[in-house]
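Handout, section 4.2: multi-component inputs.
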Amino acid sequence: MEIDWSNFTPFQALAGGGLIGAGAGLLLLANGHIAGISGILAHGLDRSLWRAAFILGLILPAALLTLAGQAGGFSPRLALDGPADWLRLGTAGLLVGIGTRLANGCTSGHGICGLARLSPRSLVAVPVFMLAAMAVVAVKP
Amino acid sequence: MTSLRLLATAFAAGSLFGLGLIISGMSRPEKVIGFLDIGRHWDPSLGLVMAAALAVAAPAFAWARRRGRTLDIPANRTVDRKLVAGSVLFGLGWGLIGLCPGPALVSLGFASLPGAIFVAAMIFGQKIGARYP
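Output:
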């Protein structure tokens, strides 16, 4: 292993991480809910509208940057050149959707909220999905 | 019916979360892949994102519990095969592109067509996953 110092951004990581934690903390303290994105999306508009409000808020900063023409360095760079890219995006999305429902959580629900409350399920889920993801990246050319 | 105040706090919480994903660089899949690429050129940034998020969220969770109001927190504490299998599938999909559900939704704000394809497949996958008892 070799640390990629040229891409390491510790200050942005700490500042952004703090904001993510603040968002999760606010949703719990003010609303009593877990900020697990996969669960919030999966339950969509059932019963109450708070999930829709959370998702709109989640998308808002990116939408404002895009409207202001300042999205450049922040927006995802994902190839979409041919059928292989469609297949890869579709497969990945499908796996993430199925997996997060079976596991009842993703990087936010297990990785942040679950670990923050030392949930035994999250203490298992996080290393498992991290290792699986690292394995995929390791075998990719 | 949810009160306006609860809608406003949920909206604000989502905005903080979305802004945090952007500032931390986690809205860019290539940055996430840099963290997952532990065998080659490892970018530890995502580890610091999680550490900082936990440093803020953990005291908030402890405080919320002490206040004793009803919290909508999963009661399930059982580690079972479904949890492990689901986490493996999620990890495989995450590693393939570098998108997990939060950044995937944020990509819609960036008007990313690949992001939208991923989100559509993810929602379809959720419907399939929800069918397993």
